[in-house]
Design goal:
five-stranded mixed beta sheet, Cytidine Deaminase, domain 2, hydrolase, about 210 residues, 2 domains, DNA repair protein RadC, UPF0758_N, alpha+beta, about 45% helix, protease, RadC_JAB
């Protein structure tokens, strides 16, 4: 492979091969990358694959699975550090950050972004985990974290493991419950994002909040 070729020009197979190539020949790495893509269907699915299924492929193992998960975690931390103390007034930036953190979960996860009075990023917290279709949400726990960080505003978010980002009636009810609880301490809910696979819905943009 030409070293002058930008990574953005590589095929999915060649890019994945570069990630798993450590101590492998280029041809073997590409064969394994092709097998991964054939088994799971996409790069997204490869990174989201269960450890046991990933390691079933001969020539791969826990160390290469850990390598991929480390890359995913680096990407998450890069995005989080990029928005530290920034004003989150762009829904596209917020949606990208949340999608990176939440779309890979195989069960539903409810999270909050805590902001100060200027809507600057204070913290991101994944607070509640559930099943493949729901997660219990306790407003008092969100209030507790708001008090810890002295937040003035919050952005809610959760993923739909099904991949479809359309808000449910339950999503709307939970949003209102959290809004009502936070209103008692003069904290605003600015938005609620529902994260699917390759799609995100903003309650604010839909006029639902």
């Amino acid at each position: 492979m030409s070293r002058t070729l930008g990574v953005e020009n590589l095929s999915d197979k060649k890019l994945l091969a570069q990630v798993i190539r450590h101590r492998l020949s280029e041809s073997l790495a590409e064969d394994l990358a092709a097998e991964l893509l054939a088994k799971f269907g996409s790069i997204y699915a490869v990174f989201n694959a269960p450890k046991e299924a990933f390691c079933e492929i001969h020539g791969l193992g826990p160390s290469r699975y850990f390598m991929l998960q480390s890359m995913l975690e680096l990407h998450k931390r890069t995005l989080q550090q990029a928005i530290q103390r920034q004003t989150l007034d762009c829904s596209e930036t917020t949606a990208k950050f949340l999608a990176t953190h939440l779309q890979h979960h195989q069960s539903e996860c409810f999270a909050v972004i805590l902001l100060n009075a200027q809507n600057e990023f204070l913290a991101f917290k994944e607070l509640f985990r559930g099943t493949i279709s729901s997660a219990p949400v306790f407003p008092r726990e969100i209030v507790r974290h708001v008090m810890i960080y002295n937040a003035a505003n919050v952005i809610l978010a959760h993923n739909h493991p099904s991949g479809h980002a359309e808000p449910s009636e339950c999503d709307k009810m939970i949003t209102q419950r959290v809004k009502d609880a936070l209103a008692l301490i003069d904290v605003r809910v600015l938005d609620h994002f529902v994260i699917g696979v390759g799609q995100t819905v903003s309650f604010a943009q839909r006029g639902l909040i």
